[in-house]
Amino acid sequence: MATHVGEPPPSPQPPPPDLYRDTWVRYLGYANEVGESFRAIVPVSLVWTSYGVATAYVTADAIDKGKKALAAKSCGEGRTTRAAVAVVDTFIWQALASVVIPGFTINRTCAASLYLMGSMTRWPLSVRKWATTAVGLSAIPFIIKPIDRSVDFLMDSSLRKLYSTEEKPSSSF
Q1: Is the pTM of this model over 0.85?
Q2: How far apart are CA 39 and CA 36, in angstroms?
Q3: Mean pLDDT score, 6-25
């Protein structure tokens, strides 16, 4: 389509939403934090299942980013290497930022709150366990951004220095 003199050029189409970053699917990465929050009141097998869901999300996102890197028109030489870097970078970033660090953080937050409530209150155990779950769930929104930024810093300061790319892989939010 040609533009006429004085008309602005057509604006480029925005990229389609990323299924793993811009839709409800992103919340699957938080499944293990929810599982850790409920650890005091559900069977441990359900907690481990929540880690399975989060790990499946991490793996699917890494594979998706690798496929997108392979399909990029500008890849040319080194296309396979760039795809491998995208997969590895995304997997490591997501594993740290969505599974390992937040899972540990919520686990320890809940353990500490259960211990403190046991030593500082006379609440029945069932009440303390539900209160611990509430503490864990309410902590999730507060830990996400600091953990994401910390993992970005960690990877930018270490692993990403090994990549010979001009642009940062699209693993961070």
Answers
A1: no
A2: 5
A3: 81
DSSP assignment string, 51-90: HHHHHHHHHHHHHHHHHHHHH-TT--TTHHHHHHHHHHHH
**If we measure between CA atoms, which residue out of 55, 53, 52, 50 comes closest to residue 37?**
50
Residue 139 lies in a domain: yes
Give 46-76 pLDDT, tens digit per residue.
999 999 999 999 999 999 999 999 988 665 6
Question: Which structural domain range is residue 94 located in?
Answer: 25-162
d(CA 158, CA 36): 29
* 150 or 16: which leads in pLDDT: 150
DSSP run (H or E) holding 144: helix 125-157
For helices 79-94 and 44-71, what crossing angle results, to 10°? 160
Q: What is the mean pLDDT of the chain?
A: 89
What b/e string do you get for 28-61 counting C-beta neighbours within 10 Å, with b at 16 or more? Answer: bbbbbbbbbbbbbeeeeeebeebbebbbebbeeb
The answer to whether residue 169 is domain-embedded is no
Domains in the chain, number: 1
